[in-house]
Amino acid sequence: MELKALVFDLDGVITDSAELHYQAWKKLATELGLTFDREQNEALKGVSRMDSLEIILKNNHCSDAYSAEEKETFAFRKNEYYKELVETLTEKDILPGIKALVLDARAKGLKTAIASVSKNAPRVLERIGLADYFDVIADAAKVRNSKPDPEIFLTCAQQLGIDPRACIGLEDSQAGIEGILSAKMYAVGINVTVTGSSPDLMVGSTGELSLDLLLKNFVAKGE
Ligand code: BG6
Ligand code: MG
């Protein structure tokens, strides 16, 4: 089966907004007197806002200390901090190699999609000037199951009208890699701290990615 589409995660793959998520959670955690560090943050990558909050509370043994309303307020606050940081993004924040890869792929007739569970994904893409370079941007508000569930990747494939096995998924998180593999896409990991299934191909940074590299390595599942 020929490669037909590239399905990108956003945060940490297209731009370093994974760092902005970290900073926003860190600010909230500090205000609440909770511990939170970059190591704990790894487990939050690709995970929805409310699930991320639950992980932070659980790590601090205080999941039951707050009501559902309080938790909603905390998640809202974190999002306000995050949105402020998003407004500082510019084209310069596109990670190395990404724009060239997207342009090369489209020039060769491949489709491109964004599979991000972030409700802020459209704004991030606008800020960095890439909103018009994707055929599909999955609507995070409609996704019921966060990564590691394959739902968002399958949604992208379906909206593109392409068999998932003809797609490459690119991710920086373990949850995302699991989602790509369950969707039967070829999984490319970008500096993933592997704690579960390994991606089919791993690179140390986005700067190592090129369409040539992907075409050389791609093998459809089951072939
Ligand atoms: C993912 C990030 O892309 O989106 C997570 O990796 C984040 O860290 C999730 O929690 C949800 O994002 P948002 O912007 O809807 O809170
Ligand atoms: Mg990510």
What does this structure look like?
It is a single chain. This protein has 223 residues and is α/β, with parallel strands linked by helices. Helix content is 42%, strand content 10%. It has nine helices and six strands, in the order βαααααβαβαβαββα. Strands 3-2-1-4-5-6 form a six-stranded parallel beta sheet, with helices on both faces. Helix 6 links the parallel strand 2 and strand 3. The site of 6-O-phosphono-beta-D-glucopyranose has 18 residues, from helix 1 and helix 3.
Topology:
Layout: E1 5-8, H1 17-32, H2 38-42, H3 49-59, H4 68-86, H5 98-107, E2 111-114, H6 121-127, E3 136-137, H7 151-160, E4 167-171, H8 174-182, E5 186-190, E6 201-203, H9 211-217
Parallel strand pairs: 1-2, 1-4, 2-3, 4-5, 5-6
Bound molecules: 6-O-phosphono-beta-D-glucopyranose (BG6) and magnesium ion.
